[in-house]
Write a structure and sequence with these properties.
The protein is α/β, with parallel strands linked by helices. The chain has helices at about 10-25, 40-50, 70-90, 125-140, 160-170, 185-200, 215-225, 255-260, 270-280, and strands at about 5, 25-30, 55, 95-100, 145-150, 150-155, 175, 180, 185, 205, 215, 230-235. Helix 4 links the parallel strand 4 (about 95-100) and strand 5. The radius of gyration is 18 Å and the shape is globular.
Length: about 280
């Protein structure tokens, strides 16, 4: 079975590539220059030639604030790209795996974590483009897996943990939002669950996160404590940052549906973060 991975330079794609290399699994991760997912003809020709059994779409435009000014680019990568890939997957018989976001929700749910049945209502261009990508995949191909992720972290410089460490190195006092809640999700957890779901022939849309939830402030405190970095963190409202893109204050998703389907004990976010941080030290 051959896997095709898009977005090869991102932290999630790198986690899949590393696992496949470790286990000797046939895979290919083309450069964006050779497989531009926003170009329908290039995608159709490329997938037709490579003939993967599974497409793992790890490519994403995830600059949440910048997307407010670059709407066209965000939609090209997050909506048109998945549409092109799903159409090519349908034409060649490949399974289409697409990774979504918790930002499809508005954060106004009054009780409990978000489930797959909850109404979506993205607040920003990024979230709207990610939701459009989900819809494109569903429309184009029946054999799809859509996994909504949140606060993803792993090897790479693009996540909150690396940014936090950098901030701590350059400042004695940090301000972190205490009223923004979601679930830190380890790339290794995503890889484990995705490959298990594929082995079991699962299709559909699922929330794939580590278990539990926390505030951005709680996450930051844990990270600095484990890394042995002594810095003062002041909890503030996320409104104080006056970011260009509105964000949901509570977007934590429940993973029970996927956990039950896979009969998988998905680790809590604290365990996942701790495991990753041990490698960083």
């Amino acid at each position: 079975m051959k896997y095709l991975i898009t977005g090869k330079n991102g932290q999630l794609a790198r986690a899949f590539i590393r696992r496949f290399e470790q286990q000797g699994i046939d895979h290919i991760a083309p450069e964006e220059s050779s497989l531009d997912i926003t170009n329908a003809r290039v995608v159709a020709d490329g997938i037709g030639t490579l003939k993967p059994a599974v497409i793992l779409n790890c490519a994403a435009y995830n600059l949440v604030d910048k997307a407010e000014q670059e709407r066209e680019k965000a939609y090209a990568v997050n909506a048109k790209g998945p549409e092109n890939l799903a159409r090519a997957a349908a034409a060649t018989g490949a399974v289409m795996v697409h990774f979504g976001s918790d930002y499809v929700f508005d954060g106004l749910k009054e009780q409990g974590l978000y489930t797959e049945e909850d109404v979506v209502n993205p607040l920003n261009v990024y979230g709207k483009s990610k939701l459009a990508g989900e819809a494109s995949v569903v429309k184009e191909h029946d054999r799809h897996l859509i996994f909504r992720l949140s606060w993803v972290f792993g090897d790479g410089q693009q996540n909150f943990i690396y940014k936090l460490r950098s901030w701590a190195e350059s400042s004695d006092h940090l301000k972190i939002a205490c009223d923004e809640f979601s679930v830190p999700t380890y790339t290794e957890t995503v890889v484990d669950a995705t490959l298990l779901a594929l082995r079991q022939g699962l299709i559909g849309r699922y929330h794939l996160t580590n278990s539990g939830f926390c505030s951005r402030y709680e996450w930051a405190k844990m990270v600095l404590t484990v890394l042995g970095i002594k810095k003062f963190i002041r909890p503030v409202s996320m409104d104080e940052f006056k970011l260009p893109a509105p964000r949901p204050k509570f977007s934590a998703m429940a993973n029970e549906r996927l956990s039950r389907k896979l009969d998988m004990n998905i680790p809590g976010w604290e365990e996942a973060v701790s495991s990753f941080l041990q490698q960083m030290r």
